[in-house]
Automatic annotation (TrEMBL):
<feature type="signal peptide">
    <location>
        <begin position="1"/>
        <end position="24"/>
    </location>
</feature>
<dbReference type="InterPro" id="IPR032744">
    <property type="entry name" value="IGFL"/>
</dbReference>
<protein>
    <recommendedName>
        <fullName>IGF like family member 1</fullName>
    </recommendedName>
</protein>
<keyword id="KW-0732">Signal</keyword>
<keyword id="KW-0964">Secreted</keyword>
<comment type="similarity">
    <text>Belongs to the IGFL family.</text>
</comment>
<dbReference type="Pfam" id="PF14653">
    <property type="entry name" value="IGFL"/>
</dbReference>
């Protein structure tokens, strides 16, 4: 392949990608198909848009989903409910930011919740 043809092939590929990822008229996928340039994550056997949903207990749930943790409510996409292990192991829980270990030292972001 000559250098000129190689350059033309690269330019053609860039043009195709630009067309596929352009923000022209919206096209909604039907069924399980996804757009090539759409950001997506996988949850079990489902895909989801992380700007709208998250994966919680192998299910796709909306970002605003809440659940009870003792007498508190926590946001399942951003927080986690942990058993409180110090002094009263069966009487209370602590809500921690997701990604922090349930066994890490308490922080100012934690919320203690009674049963």
């Amino acid at each position: 392949m000559t250098p000129r043809r190689c350059i033309l092939a690269v330019l053609a590929a860039v043009c195709v990608l630009l067309l596929l990822c352009s923000h022209g008229a919206p096209v909604s996928p039907t069924g399980p198909q996804l757009l090539l340039c759409q950001s997506h994550e996988r949850c079990g056997d489902q895909f989801y848009d992380p700007r709208q949903d998250c994966c919680y207990d192998d299910a796709v749930v909306p970002l605003g989903r809440t659940q009870k943790c003792g007498n508190c409510t926590f946001r399942v996409c951003f927080e986690q409910c942990c058993p409180w292990l110090v002094n009263r192991p069966r009487e209370s829980f602590v809500v921690k930011v997701k990604g922090h270990s349930c066994y890490s030292a308490p922080s100012s972001d934690d919320r203690v919740c009674s049963r």
